[in-house]
Design a protein that fits this description.
With about 220 residues, the chain is α/β, with parallel strands linked by helices. Helices cover about 40% and strands about 15% of the residues. The protein is built from 7 helices and 6 strands. It has a 6-stranded parallel β-sheet, sandwiched between helices. The longest helix has 16 residues, at about 185-200. The mean pLDDT is about 95. The structure holds flavin mononucleotide (FMN). Flavin mononucleotide binds near residues 20, 21, 113, 114 and 115.
Length: about 220
């Protein structure tokens, strides 16, 4: 069986990952790689603009069709510990459109203002919106990683609506106290925050020791 293919035996825990057309594709690929490294099964949905952002920000090698080789080349063979099932965002009949699917939680990384508005108002027009709605109705963990600046009042209100409905709002705001040197360090930080929010341990950034570590 091909490592990382949907033919592999399904690991016990599944997590959904939605990728939309906000800037920050690297946050999505680092989060996906980290989930796979943990041996998880990832139900992946990438919106049309999410696909465009992957290509625009990370290059032609980061298309959906090439995602596994891209992740292996960038993050190492550890990603083959997990499996991915790629869904069409148009498929509202996919397994994860139902609460009967045992998905532990979902993250939307990055989350556009458009998709956040749809989640805030329960629109469920595509699979990302529907899977997010399922997480809220089943009271499972939904982590929304919005990226926009500045934000309008409707956008801020939509964030509050999502939080009131039970989602965790985890803005794409990497910290600098861990002395990042590269863009990958910033992506590691965000992916670590997202894994923590989903309830997974990780070593993507060092725990805060009370003072800045200089090397
Ligand atoms: C290059 C590019 C960058 C974008 N960056 C953002 C962004 O950071 N935040 C955002 O909310 N929308 C951004 N957009 C707009 C969204 O892609 C657009 O609203 C789209 O309809 C979102 O659809 P989706 O949520 O289904 O992916 C960007 C679009 C492009 C083409």
């Amino acid at each position: 069986m091909a490592p990382g293919s949907a033919d592999s035996p399904r690991p016990r825990e599944a997590v959904a990952l939605g990728v939309t057309g906000a800037s920050g594709a690297m946050y999505a690929t680092r989060t996906l790689a980290a989930l796979l490294e943990r041996g998880l099964h990832v139900e992946l949905i990438v919106s049309e603009y999410g696909r465009r952002l992957l290509r625009d920000e990370l290059g032609d090698q980061a298309t959906i069709e090439n995602l596994l080789p891209f992740l292996s080349a960038k993050y190492g063979d550890g990603v083959s510990a997990g499996t991915i099932n790629v869904h069409s965002n148009r498929d509202l009949g996919a397994t994860i459109a139902s609460g009967s699917h045992g998905c532990r939680g979902m993250a939307i990384v990055p989350c556009s203002m458009k998709t956040m508005a749809a989640v805030a108002h329960g629109l469920s027009r595509n699979l990302i919106e529907r899977a997010a709605d399922v997480m809220l109705k089943e009271q499972r963990r939904l982590v929304i990683v919005p990226r926009e600046t500045p934000m309008s009042l409707p956008q801020l209100r939509n964030m509050v609506l999502c939080a009131e409905a039970g989602a965790m709002i985890l803005p794409a705001m990497p910290a600098f106290y861990q002395q990042p040197r590269t863009l990958d360090d910033l992506a590691d930080f965000m992916a670590g925050k997202i894994l923590s929010a989903l309830g997974f341990e990780h070593q993507l950034y060092p725990a805060w020791t009370g003072q800045v570590e200089r090397s």
